[in-house]
Design brief:
This protein is of the alpha/beta class and 468 residues long. The protein folds into 3 domains: 2-67, Winged helix-like DNA-binding domain superfamily/Winged helix DNA-binding domain (Arc Repressor Mutant, subunit A, Orthogonal Bundle); 93-117 and 357-463, Aspartate Aminotransferase, domain 1, CATH 3.90.1150; 121-354, Aspartate Aminotransferase, domain 2, CATH 3.40.640.10. It has 16 helices and 15 strands. The strands form 4 sheets. Strands 4-11-10-9-8-5-6-7 form an 8-stranded mixed beta sheet, with helices on both faces. A 3-stranded antiparallel beta sheet has the order 12-15-14. It has a two-stranded antiparallel sheet with strand order 1-2. Strand 8, helix 11 (255-267) and strand 9 (271-275) form a beta-alpha-beta unit. Keywords: DNA-binding, Pyridoxal phosphate, Transcription, Transcription regulation.
């Protein structure tokens, strides 16, 4: 007989013995079972291993095999007390969970904040990390601020307004932003933000107990006159801004407004957090320099992340500031997690200073241009009313204005039922949204799926109730 039949006989025999035995009783040895069933020791051992995996018997080293103890049924846990102990749930959690949720396998993603895996430099990053992992120094305790050579690279990227000593390496942009808000504010302070603005900034500010006040923005970025008025009215000392390819709108702060925004911040004696997350995602032309490059008196807190432009797993960012603000940021990061893993810092430095980084830039620029144009073409074909008036010159998203009266949250749910994932505009506003929008991401799906994605979105929109 074959080994399979022999194993089945051994398993059947042991099950019968277990049924008649008590927990803790000894089972026959492998030698006994081998002789009884005329099977090889290997076959018997595999049969016993299977029953051990099922929890029927248990093996005790050097003593043999025994009938497993019958588990005592546990009472259902009562966790209801936690609702009283924890109190109200922090605002914004649901929106952040939805933003980071993975799309179903059969859906076309027009949402998400990262590059499609096909556009990520996984091979180059993996090779760099493998080399870094073999270096003993990568596993030693490093400086709390991060490697000086990596900090120097980030400082150069900031345009020369900051030095390596001003920078702190962080495990991603979200961690850097959270540290900055805690270091520079106390609960009850006011944070000014562009309207709309990055959902993660809103959630982090609310979790820190800040009062969030929106400042109107348009296709040319935040409006300087409204920013100055908001500083005067609220007494705020901090403004969070994405001056380059803002998420979700894709707007870039116009050249003529840069000096006016800086003047408003200076006049208020305030700080501006410059979230430069998309500097490596330029599609058309060249990106303007960071605001930190022209900041002689230390008003700009510069934040630069590599996660969006490389891969979600590259949790490396830097935040920089001068003077006492910089000291407070360094202290906050030390309290949070001591330092970023040395191997990841080493791999990041190797990657961004190698020819692979420039090749990745070129490939991403070409790919994003193709995907953006494919999405725009599909919108013009099937949903021309959703084509944005201003097309962003970089970044990952289009900000699509919906017809008046459309429930953007309900539309996003209906689109998901049609097999296309989009994100509603409402959560990106700190106050009431002036109009319904969708954020449509062109980086997460290939060009040949854009037409079908918009077809599905069109069916979802057609099924929405007519506005009153």
């Amino acid at each position: 007989m074959g080994n399979g039949n022999a194993a089945a006989r051994v398993i059947h025999d042991l099950r019968g013995l277990v049924a008649r035995a008590q927990p803790g009783d000894r089972m026959p040895s492998v030698r006994e079972l081998t002789a009884r069933h005329h099977a090889s020791p290997v076959t018997v051992t595999e049969a016993v291993r299977q029953l051990v995996a099922e929890g029927v018997v248990e093996a005790r080293s050097g003593r043999g095999t025994f009938v497993a103890a019958v588990p005592v049924p546990e009472r259902a846990p009562d966790l209801s007390w936690q609702t009283v102990a924890l109190g109200p749930r922090p605002p914004g959690e649901e929106d952040m969970q939805a933003l980071l949720a993975l799309p179903p396998a059969d859906a076309i993603p027009l949402s998400g904040g990262y590059l499609d895996p096909d556009l990520q430099p996984a091979a180059a990053l993996g090779a760099a990390l493998a080399r870094a992992a073999r270096q003993p120094a990568s596993w030693q305790r490093g400086s709390a601020e991060g490697r000086e050579d990596l900090r120097a690279w980030f400082a150069r990227q900031a345009g020369g307004g900051l030095a390596a000593r001003d920078m702190v390496i962080c495990p991603g942009g979200q961690a850097a932003l959270s540290s900055a808000l805690r270091a520079l504010t106390t609960a009850g302070d006011t944070l000014l933000v562009e309207s709309p603005t990055y959902l993660g900034a809103l959630a982090t500010a609310r979790a820190a107990g800040l009062r969030v006040v929106p400042v109107p923005a348009d296709a040319d970025g935040v409006r300087p006159d409204q920013l100055a008025a908001a500083f005067t009215r609220t007494g705020a000392r901090l403004f969070y801004c994405q001056p380059l390819y803002a998420n979700p709108t894709g707007a870039t702060l116009a050249t003529r407004r840069r000096a006016e925004v800086a003047a408003a911040v200076r006049a208020a004696g305030a700080f501006l957090i410059e979230d430069d997350y998309a500097r490596d995602l330029t599609i058309d032309g060249e990106a303007p320099p960071p605001l930190a490059a022209d900041d002689p008196d230390g008003h700009v807190i510069h934040l630069r992340s590599l996660t969006k432009s490389a891969a979600p797993g590259l949790r490396v960012a830097a935040i920089g500031a001068r003077g006492p603000a910089g000291a407070r940021l360094r202290a906050a990061r030390l309290l949070d997690d001591f330092f970023v893993a040395g191997s990841l810092q080493q791999a990041t430095l190797e990657f961004v200073t190698s020819p692979a980084w420039a090749r990745h830039h070129r490939a991403v620029r070409t790919a994003l241009r193709g995907r953006r144009e494919a999405l725009l073409a599909a919108l013009r074909r099937h949903l021309p009313q959703l084509v944005p008036q201003a097309v962003p010159r970089g970044g990952l998203h289009l900000w699509a204005r919906l017809p008046d009266g459309t429930d953007d949250v309900a539309l996003a749910a209906a689109a998901a039922n049609e097999g296309v994932v989009v994100f509603p505009g409402r959560p990106w506003y700190a106050a009431e949204p002036p109009a319904p929008h969708l954020r449509l991401t062109y980086a997460a799906a290939p060009p040949d799926l854009m037409d079908e994605a918009v077809r599905r979105l069109s069916r979802a929109l057609d099924g929405q109730p007519a506005s009153s």
